[in-house]
Design goal:
Number of strands: 3
Largest sheet: 3 strands, mixed
Radius of gyration: 17 Å
Number of helices: 4
Distance between the termini: 44 Å
Helix content: 55-70%
Number of domains: 2
Strand order of the largest sheet: 1-2-3
Length: about 90
């Protein structure tokens, strides 16, 4: 895994996007995001993929709670949108 800052990632995005290595992006020394190439997802260790998915689920859950949304409200909204597009 490569480590970079937000500024460096922005300035050298093309280089990082071509890389097959995951990139941990930091802001002021703290993790701000992770870039993972989806071309070769199967090359990522299973444990890493599990940790990544758990981190994403945890962040989404936290965001939903902060904004006062429930899972049922979101599912209902998806269903309403889906039906509207039929």
């Amino acid at each position: 895994m490569k480590l970079t800052t937000v500024k460096e990632f922005r300035d050298q995005a093309t280089k990082f996007l071509r890389s097959r290595d995951p990139v941990l992006i930091t802001r002021r020394g703290k993790p701000a995001g992770i870039y993972v190439s989806l071309e070769k997802e199967e090359d990522l260790p299973v444990d890493f993929r599990k940790e990544l998915m758990l981190a994403l689920v945890t962040q989404v859950k936290k965001s939903l709670q902060e904004h006062g949304f429930t899972e049922q409200e979101i599912l209902s909204d998806f269903e309403t949108t889906r039906q509207a597009h039929r």
